[in-house]
Design a protein that fits this description.
- By secondary structure, the protein is of the alpha+beta class.
- The protein is built from 9 helices and 10 strands.
- The protein has one domain: Cyclic Phosphodiesterase, Chain: A.
- It is 26% helix and 29% strand.
- Strands 2-1-9-10 form a 4-stranded antiparallel beta sheet. A 4-stranded antiparallel beta sheet has the order 7-4-3-8.
- The longest helix is centred in the C-terminal third of the chain and has 14 residues.
Length: 253
Amino acid sequence: MPPSSPTIVFCPDAELGYERSRTRFGTGEGLALDETYRLAHLPLVAPGHPSVIESREGTSYVMGRHERVFSLVLPVFSDLLQQSPAYRDLDAAMRASPFAGKIAWDLLDRRRDKLHATICGSLSTGTPPVLDEDKRRALTELGPITVELRGLFSGNVNRGRLYLRAYPECRNGENVFRRIQRSLGCRETDLYVVGLYNMTDDLDAAETAALAALIDKWWDRTILRFEIDRLWLLGASDDLVLDSAIEESVSLV
């Protein structure tokens, strides 16, 4: 008999920051877009909204745009996502929700080829970072990695954006995303989210209750499981990566 394939083990919630970082919805309360969102996202999805923060001293943001920043990210291919029955069910539930009129639906098509979860953020500004031979060797030694997406997620920062949560492989007790971060000398993190939906306005109490119920319903649902053999070195001048380019496809094999 041929040898059996190794069982893929994913990092558990206890080792990740999703529970700690999720939005805490108050009973009978609405959901207000927070300052981070109103500075970085709202100008791009609803530039005429009165709550837009056009710029802020000490940052390079001007109407949601900033100097080009390069990051190493996990690509999430839209075609795979669209083939997932769970994703199609989630999207249908979002479109039928009481707050559907406050979602920037046009962004889904504009971002379909740019979906990702950031692993190593802000590697450089202005010009692409240099990945030397040692760093590239460390990545290729890792080999293909398997990731599971679960959803839906709203965080305690950047309220107004809704995500899927990426769960990396745990190999020999090690989070493979943290291994990548260490190999590149980056800060280790425990949140890896795929931005999907953006709100164009605050939610009232009924809309917020509907969103909270959707998040609870979908929290433990697997949306997609996939294997990836490369990462993207992505340069972008806005946090929605509307003005972005894949500088390089970085091999893991």
